[in-house]
What does this fold into?
Amino acid sequence: MKNTLFKQIGTLVLAGLALTAMPTQAEAQPKVIRIGVAAPTVGNPPLFTLGSFGIAYTKGWFEEEFKKDGVKLEWTYFKGAGPAVNEALTNHQLDFALQGDLPSVIGRSSGLKTRLIAAATVRTNIYLATPPDSSIKSIKDLKGKRVAIFLGTNMQLVVDRILAANGLSERDLRVVNLDTGSLDAAIATKSVDAAFSFIDLLSLRDKGLAKIVYTNRGSDPTFTRQNALLVTDEFASQYPAATTRVVKALARGAHWVSQEANQPETFLLWSKMGFAESLLREDLSAEPLKAVQSPLLDAFFVSRYKDVAAASYQLKLARNKVEVDSWVDRRYLTEALKQLQLDGFWSPVDAAGKPVTTVASGK
Amino acid sequence: MTAASSIEKAPPPLPTSLPAPGLRLSTLRITALAGDFVKRFGLAATGLILPLLLLALWQHAASQHWIAEQLLPPPALVWQSLVELWGSGDLRSHIAVSLSRIGWSFLIGGSVGLALGFAMGLSRQLKAYLFPTFEVVAQFPVVGWIPLLIIFFGIGEALKISAISIAIVVPIVINTYKGIANIPNALLDVARVYRFDLPQVIARVVVPAALPSLFNGLRQGVMQAWLSLVFVELLAASEGIGYLMVWGRQLLQLDLVVVGMIAVGAIGVLLDVSLRLVEARLQRWRKVAF
Amino acid sequence: MSFIQKHITHRDWRGFVLPVGFLVIWTAVTAAGWVNTKLIVPPSDVIAAAYKYFTSGTFFSGLGASLGRDLAGFVLGSLVGVAFGSLVGLSRWANRLAGPTFHTLKHISLFAWLPLISTWLGQGDGAKIFFVALSAFYPVALGTIEGVQGVARAQVEVARVYAFNARQLLFKLVLPAASPQIIAGLHLALIYAWLATIGSEYLLAKSGPGLGDAVIQGKTAFNVGLVVFGMLLVGLIGYALNRIALRAEARVLRWRGRAS
It folds into this structure.
């Protein structure tokens, strides 16, 4: 019973592989496309507005793309984020996943057959906060202090890099593993001396419960976390055209967000996910939205993922070292941008986060 | 004890055909022979049938790839991780940390639970004051307790112990209270006839009569302690069995989760058995008392 | 009508002493500024959170979804628990065969099963209901085993004299005699099922409406007012479920009193 099922899947995959070589018009349409997002929805009716993906979702552009073919989109939002998405992918419950860098590396290292097909909100900033009356003034002062970090998430890898740049390592600190909410509570009650986290710390600061001691914002874009859209090998090889169209909807969102004129509405939509508009604007003040929402799988993106792959292997978070170059598949994005006549709209950035002027888009 | 140790001791690359003769053997033995030897060893063997069958099913499922290897690690991999973690001392230190958390919580939560249960079981007045609040508070979700407890206890051991204690209190209070409330009035009347004072009533009537319920509550308290341990170690810890399991799931290394399950199961059974021994001893004393 | 009147006049005020006293102290210390009100928020913050929650329209869909999962899981888990408990309690064979496994498995945290549950049942309602059922199953099974094994041999002998068949033995003697323990198990199961309902909303990742949302969001954003409100909401609804169950329990036990 099971065996025949697997055989059938095998045949489908083979058929799919054969189809990739064919012109895309001949391709059959999937009945359902299952997309998983490693973030929760808010409210009722459920809202999800985060990033350019959230905007495209809220505007209904994914549905719009597939409406005429009668393809159904099935959305799953995961509160538990990374691990749950990986479990669902392993179980063949998803075709696409929007995931952070570390969880997807962990999934890949454990044998999940996926492809990275578009960046979706890159360069998420990091902050270090302390209680308001703390004497800690810089990263170097953290030596020997109790510092809260959400371990096992992509936050940990960025923190390690920041510490290393300051001649420290996790061992020099008394690291306390706390999830986001508990970490805020710990700073507020002065149970820890400092905490690394993201925009939540800004909201803690505004309540007068913390001060920000360090942020990479505006200084070093390599101390950031990335998100990307993944597709399963199975789906991508069977339905390359449909894959391109999903990327197209995402790119449309990214394009819309990148335009100056849409900023007020963008921030208004984003603020519905729980953080005040002023904080979101502050968090994103260092770079134009166009840069942060660039879907390009450029040198910067690849070098970030390579770092994550190397560090996660070194820290034994991942059992095998993930090879990034063969994981990234730019064909769908290139095709999508061409169809949208957006090639050249975003400029690729190099590994250090500086614009590359000589290379054409996305290649 | 038997079931857990069988999982640990069984060689991992178990041939799938093994449990079948085991089953036939033990049924044969027990049905055919009724000797003392068989009785003693047959009883242990019957308890092993189901775990062995499950182990065989697990091995079979893993080798047939019914479920992706990432989600159902094969027994051999789990065994290997277990040996590695035990050898490096990691597993032992995780167990030690968790056990000390459970121990303190059991002491605190257990005494509070027994006190509350006795108070509400013995005095209708106290029950009227306390029970409604207890019932609301008992249903506060653990997820919500954590931030509040951080405010009062910080993020050290006190946080973990208080959170686990809260979970332990609930089953102990309910079982103790119900055990006492269900004591037949006739028994209490007898005590009145004998003109027992309160300590005597408690020692000679209430405790012996409510003993099974009391221990039921304690055992369920231990169970709840393990459940919430995982929750607590999920949210704020970097060591302990619960943390190991959470970590394993986070990193999609489910063999670590299964190792954690085996450890929790084995320790749980040990605690259960020791509670039963204490109970049996007290039961004897109870018979003497009457 | 008279029932309601009776209910109101007989309302036991003593249960309110503790919460009201607590509320007074809470208001007093936050108003007097003896504590850091950014951490220990005043009751008004909780009321504000409550107002926002109830006006956002998430309440009824959340209540329906959570209660549905809770009851489905509770009923399922309890039925299986009573059946399994009776079997293991009555049959020495079943006890020998399944007892050790059951007593080992019961210690394994429900959390540990999550990856497997989500594998087999996904992350949606099916998985959540199963999770709730599992948490209700253990106390009911334990209570039933305890109760059934406690039925005195003498009583069974008497039943044999009256030539009860197996079904009569089970439904007329064993289960009624074991009902206090079974009901204690059910009572616990009701609480655990409710806790597991909220827990599953946190742990089983598929987003959807549920009453746990308030607590979970409050916790994630460290909004103490919202956390406290969420806990009260969950606690009070759990309390209401319990009241209903206790009334049912009183009825069942009264019936038992008459029957025996």
Residues 166-203 of chain C form the longest helix (38 residues). The two ends of chain C are 33 Å apart (CA to CA). Residues 1-6 of chain C have pLDDT under 50 and may be disordered. The CA atoms of residues 143 and 182 of chain C lie 5 Å apart.
